Amino acid sequence: MNTIKYFNSACILIICMILMAALYYQFGLNEEPCPLCLLQRMGMIGVIFGLALNIYVGFDSKHFGVVIISALVGGFFSVRQVLLHIIPTDGNTGYGTPIFGMHLYTWGVFIFLASILGSAIFLFFNRKFKSEKTHVILNFEKYVVYLATFIVFVNVIATFFECQLGPCCENGPCK
């Protein structure tokens, strides 16, 4: 059971690293995220929330449902953005700097698909992953969730400063 719990924490850490990379692009490289990028981040935060529920409450198919729905929503916005930039025009090769030849929103499609696939595998083998009656949260798991909470908080603050209280238009608040 601990192996599965560590795997859950590792998935949260992977998504945290992706969100930290997005924050680096935002603040380190001054690449403001577009509204679709912010919606993709919300999808990743939803995936983190479902995985964190597994850590704190115990494994349940409803928690994987949260992961799958969040990944579907985030994946929808990722695919939408990929389709917007699928045929590059002169001087416009996509939004943002590519990583290993693909843009962040393209990587988002793969991350969300992996989240759905991973959740489906857990649900397929659901009987093996039943929670114990005495649910113990390991310190490692607590630190992972604390890190994820901090990264979510930073994303919320960054989004607030970008969009303020109104709708978020292309690269900032609507005028």
From TrEMBL:
InterPro entries, A to Z: DiS_bond_form_DsbB/BdbC (IPR003752), DsbB-like_sf (IPR023380)
A Pfam family that the UniProt record links to this protein: DsbB
Entry keywords, A to Z: Membrane, Transmembrane, Transmembrane helix
Transmembrane segments: 7-27, 39-57, 64-84, 104-123, 143-161
A molecular function GO annotation: protein-disulfide reductase activity
A single GO cellular-component term on record: membrane
GO biological process, one term: protein folding
Membrane topology reported for the UniProt record: Multi-pass membrane protein
Subcellular localization, as worded in the UniProt entry: Membrane
Protein name listed in UniProt: Disulfide bond formation protein B
Organism encoding this protein: Flammeovirga pacifica
Organism classification: Bacteria, Pseudomonadati, Bacteroidota, Cytophagia, Cytophagales
